[in-house]
Specification:
The chain is of the alpha/beta class and 181 residues long. 48% of the residues lie in helices and 14% in strands. The protein has 8 helices and 5 strands. The strands form 2 sheets. A 3-stranded parallel β-sheet has the order 1-2-3. β4 and β5 form a beta hairpin. α2 runs parallel beside α4, α3 packs across α4 and α4 runs parallel beside α5. It is globular and about 55 Å long. The N and C termini lie far apart (48 Å). The relative contact order is 0.11.
Length: 181
């Protein structure tokens, strides 16, 4: 079977149904929290400012930032910045959300507030792909887990298959290293 790359229109159609939450927040420092969430709605989806504002306020309230609408990124904690990124991603109403290690740059105290929001997203029915080192969290919210080792898919299965009875020695070693502390 020959692989044919998708055309640009097909790629763009997929991009419009997908949102990403980055490891390093990727918020605009010169925009308020509200403006950060409104931006893709106005620029990409061509919504009016009022439509974008209504959606942005709803999503910011959903992630617990309703009282921070007029704050700038420099006035927020890492967890609040990450929740701003999640609200921005949710605002575009994606079919699929990609989370790239969303807690890796957070203080341990802030991890819980972000994981709570991600759990809410997962339970809302939005398909989510989460890259994380928070193994117990992944086990608790996933219906499928993929273990990668050196950039290659090494094992995949249900949380029970992966955690309770790992068939791959490297996966077992990785999971046991999590229990050291």
């Amino acid at each position: 079977m020959d692989y044919q790359s998708p055309d640009k229109a097909a790629i763009q159609a997929i991009r419009l149904r997908t949102a990403m939450v980055f490891q390093q927040f990727n918020v605009f420092k010169n925009m308020t929290v509200l403006e950060n969430v409104m931006d893709p709605l106005i620029v990409i989806q061509r919504k009016t400012k009022q439509q974008a504002r209504d959606i942005a306020v709803q999503e910011l309230e959903r992630v617990g930032l309703g009282a921070k609408l007029d704050h700038y990124p420099s006035q927020l904690s890492g967890g609040q910045l990450q929740r701003t990124g999640i609200a921005r991603a949710l605002a575009v109403r994606p079919d699929v959300m990609l989370f790239d290690e969303p807690t890796s740059s957070l203080d341990p105290e802030l991890v819980g507030e972000v994981l709570k929001v991600i759990k809410d997203v997962a339970s809302s029915g939005i398909t989510s792909l989460l890259v994380t080192h928070e193994m117990q969290f992944a086990k608790s919210i996933s219906n499928r887990i993929v273990f990668m080792d050196q950039g290659v898919v090494a094992a995949q299965g249900t949380p029970a298959e992966m955690f309770d009875n790992p068939s791959l020695p490297r996966l077992a070693q990785f999971l046991n290293s999590e229990k050291v502390f």
